[in-house]
Design a protein that fits this description.
Radius of gyration: 20 Å
Structural class: alpha+beta
Helix content: 10-25%
Shape: elongated
Largest sheet: 6 strands, antiparallel
CATH topology of the largest domain: Jelly Rolls
CATH architecture of the largest domain: Sandwich
CATH class of the largest domain: Mainly Beta
Strand content: 35-45%
Mean pLDDT: 93
Number of domains: 2
Distance between the termini: 51 Å
Strand order of the largest sheet: 1-10-7-14-5-2
Number of helices: 4
Low-confidence stretches: none
Number of strands: 19
Length: 247
């Protein structure tokens, strides 16, 4: 696999023709054999774990249909060939037609450090915008290509698909018809802390899905403390230890 030489945002890895034509056709066939969710302007499919676009929260693994075999084989390739920490647990399929797009965003911290997007059917541009909004880089996500967001491109630069009816590629104006993308992500497990004050446990805290919660009144409640503000009184513990302490 070779990287293209076009300018890329820091941390973005791009591999043209990473997917074979046979893998491409199998993936498209697999996707089109399943029902799409029509709750958004664009149609989507969720596998492994469902993402709630209203609350911007990822549900637990198993909250969506299992990743289909042909897509899971691709997930295994990402683990074996691309330094993913483990086989991705979640896949979202997005279908874009004509002038559809997706607003500028960064993927939530509840997902792992690497986010992979594989493009199917057509070649569309994705626009990356720097944190200070002074630099925009258009990256052509070609059919069969793999783009992996790591580092700054994952956590600091936003990415979007602009709404327009055509793409200008190599001096040609090409009408958009239909593009599918498969986004593969790992899901960060919850983290737990025990806060000890004067030798006594003050509380048990959990970071999950971007929310920092305290266990109180027999349930998890949103805390006004955040991971970035943890002090030495907080001791990180594992889930089993946390469950034992909250009894």
């Amino acid at each position: 696999m070779s990287l293209i030489k076009a300018p890329l945002p820091p941390g973005l890895l791009y591999f043209p023709d990473w997917l074979s034509d046979a893998e491409h056709d199998s993936a498209v066939s697999e996707i089109d054999s399943h029902e799409f969710d029509t709750g958004l302007t664009r149609r989507v499919q969720h596998y492994g774990a469902r993402y709630d676009y209203v609350s911007a929260q990822i549900a637990k693994i198993g909250s969506a249909l299992p990743i289909p075999k042909n897509l899971y084989l691709i997930a295994e390739r990402l683990f074996n060939e691309c330094n993913f920490e483990r086989i991705p647990e979640q896949v979202i399929v997005n279908e874009y037609r004509s002038d559809q797009g997706i607003a500028a965003h960064t993927d939530k911290d509840s997902f792992g450090p690497m986010v992979a997007t594989i493009s199917l059917i057509e070649n569309w541009y994705m626009t990356f915008l720097s944190p200070d909004r002074r630099e925009a880089i258009d990256v052509l996500l070609a059919k069969n290509s793999l783009a992996i967001m790591t580092g700054a491109s994952r956590s600091q630069w936003t990415h979007e698909i602009k709404k327009r009816k055509n793409e200008r590629i190599g001096g040609l104006i090409i009408p958009r018809i239909r593009r599918l993308s498969m986004t593969f992500r790992t899901i960060n497990p919850p983290r737990y802390w025990q806060r000890v004050v004067d030798g006594t446990t003050e509380g048990i805290y959990r970071l999950e899905n971007g929310k920092f919660d305290k266990y109180a009144q027999n349930r998890w409640q949103i805390s006004d403390r955040y991971e970035t503000k943890l002090d030495p009184e907080f001791i990180e513990i594992n889930e089993a230890e946390a469950n034992k302490l909250i009894g």
